[in-house]
């Protein structure tokens, strides 16, 4: 009787051992999760647009304060470009880009011719040419370096001849950018002389070379 009980006690232990062994054999260790390779992102630089032209960088219109009959008045001017430079032109004025001439629309005898000078211009040679050109226009005066609170105060040469027919100027002017220009101005005597002189000098002070 004792041996029979020992047999039945050992059976459950054997079954349990077989079950544990089966579970151990059939269970594989779980594989670690796969990691995906990092995705590299390439950011393309933004395309750079074309550089704006000189005309595009200057406003199409601009207002200026002018003295008219001893009263300050705001007047609007329009940007014009030709002959390799640009400038602001007031109402009642016309600019001929082909010749570089700025004139009074109602009377083209009031005008100024604009010429861009080379970087190696000879000031002494220009002074001699200006004096010769103005010699028959009237009494010659040299205001170079004497212009105070004047639109063309940075002029290197300012010759003026005044006579019975009016005033003629021969001016070598330097812009803020350091570019040199030659202005030949003709302002006849007449009712329109004052309408011409003020605005035209302000326009000349806005001349800039194109880049």
Can you give a write-up of this model?
By secondary structure, the protein is an alpha+beta fold. The protein has a domain at 77-209: Protein Transport Mog1p, Chain A (3-Layer(aba) Sandwich), CATH 3.40.1000. Helices cover 25% and strands 36% of the residues. The protein has helices at residues 2-26, 54-57, 123-134, 193-204, and strands spanning 61-68, 71-82, 85-90, 93-96, 101-104, 107-116, 139-142, 155-163, 166-174, 180-188, 208-209. Strands 4-5-6-10-9-8-7 form a seven-stranded antiparallel β-sheet, with helices on both faces. Strands 1-2-3-11 form a four-stranded antiparallel β-sheet. The longest helix is centred in the N-terminal third of the chain and has 25 residues, at 2-26. It starts with a helix and ends with a strand. 20% of the residues are buried. The model is unreliable at 1-31 and 38-55 (pLDDT under 50).
Task: List its traits.
211 residues, alpha+beta, Protein Transport Mog1p, Chain A, seven-stranded antiparallel beta sheet, four-stranded antiparallel beta sheet, 11 strands, globular, disordered N terminus
Uncertain segments: 1-31, 38-55
Spatial shape: globular
CATH topology of one domain: Protein Transport Mog1p, Chain A
- Secondary-structure content class: alpha+beta
Topology pattern, helix = H, strand = E: HHEEEEEEHEEEEHE
What is the CATH architecture assignment of one domain? Answer: 3-Layer(aba) Sandwich
Q: How much strand content do the residues show?
A: 35-45%
Q: What's the total count of β strands?
A: 11
* Biggest pleated sheet: 7 strands, antiparallel
Helix residue percentage:
25-40%
